[in-house]
Design a protein that fits this description.
The protein is of the alpha/beta class. The chain contains 7 helices and 10 strands. It has helices at about 15-20, 40, 65-85, 115-125, 145-150, 165-170, 180-185; strands spanning about 5-10, 30-35, 50-55, 90, 95-100, 105-110, 130-135, 155-160, 175-180, 190. Helix 4 runs parallel beside helix 5 (about 145-150).
C-alpha cells in the first residue's frame, strides 16, 4: 500500500460556490460537482492526504423563516455527506447579516473561513505535517499564510478560474494553474441549486 499523500488541499467553499454558479455554470444552471472526485482531479489524479473544506452554514433568523430553514437543512445534509468522505475535514465559520431593516437591504457575508484556512495552512506547514499544499481559492487575504507556509518549506499550488483570483495570490504561489473546465464538467452535471448551496 502506498504511503499517505503529504499534500493537503484547502477549498474555500464560498469561492467554489461562486465558480459553480457563475463561470462554470452550464446553460445558466449551477454545476453540481461530484465532490468526492474533486480532490484527486485538482491534485493531478492523486487523492490528497487531507481535504479541508472551509464553509459557513446559511443565516437563520430568530425564529427562522421557512425558506431559511429549508436552505439551512439542505446545506447541513450536504456537509454531513462531505464529512463522511475519507480524508475530508470540515471547518465552519459563520454567516453574518448586514444592512438595513428590510429584506431587500440585507447582505449576507461569510466570516472567519479565510482565517481558519490560513491558520490550518500555517500550522500544518510549521509542524511538518505536509510537504505540499494546494488551494482552491482566490482571496488575497491568504497571501501572508501562503508566504509563511513557503517559508516553512511547503510547496504551495493554486487552482483558480481566470479572472476570479487576486493577482497577488496567483503571484505568491509556487505554481498557479487555471482550472481544467472540461475535466470539472466531466465529473459534474447541470442541476438546480446544489444541496445546501
Amino acid at each position: 500500500m502506498p504511503p499517505p499523500s503529504r499534500t493537503a488541499l484547502f477549498i474555500d467553499a464560498a469561492y467554489l460556490d461562486h465558480l459553480t454558479r457563475g463561470p462554470l455554470a452550464m446553460g445558466g444552471s449551477p454545476l453540481a460537482l461530484d465532490m468526492p472526485r474533486l480532490p484527486a482531479l485538482l491534485n493531478g489524479g492523486t487523492r490528497p492526504g487531507l481535504t479541508g473544506y472551509y464553509h459557513a452554514l446559511p443565516w437563520l433568523s430568530d425564529p427562522p423563516l421557512p425558506a431559511e430553514h429549508a436552505l439551512y437543512e439542505a446545506r447541513r445534509r450536504f456537509l454531513a455527506f462531505l464529512e463522511r468522505q475519507r480524508g475530508w475535514r470540515l471547518r465552519a465559520g459563520r454567516t453574518e447579516r448586514r444592512g438595513g431593516h428590510r429584506p431587500g437591504d440585507w447582505v449576507y457575508e461569510q466570516k472567519r473561513c479565510d482565517v481558519l484556512l490560513a491558520v490550518d495552512l500555517v500550522r500544518m506547514a510549521w509542524r511538518g505535517e505536509i510537504e505540499a499544499a494546494l488551494l482552491l481559492a482566490g482571496d488575497s487575504d491568504l497571501v501572508p499564510a501562503v508566504c509563511d507556509a513557503r517559508e516553512a518549506g511547503v510547496r504551495v499550488g493554486l487552482r483558480y478560474f481566470p479572472g476570479t483570483a487576486h493577482a497577488d495570490l496567483v503571484a505568491c504561489c509556487d505554481e498557479a494553474r487555471p482550472l481544467d473546465v472540461a475535466a470539472l464538467r466531466a465529473i459534474s452535471r447541470p442541476a438546480g441549486p446544489r444541496p445546501g448551496a
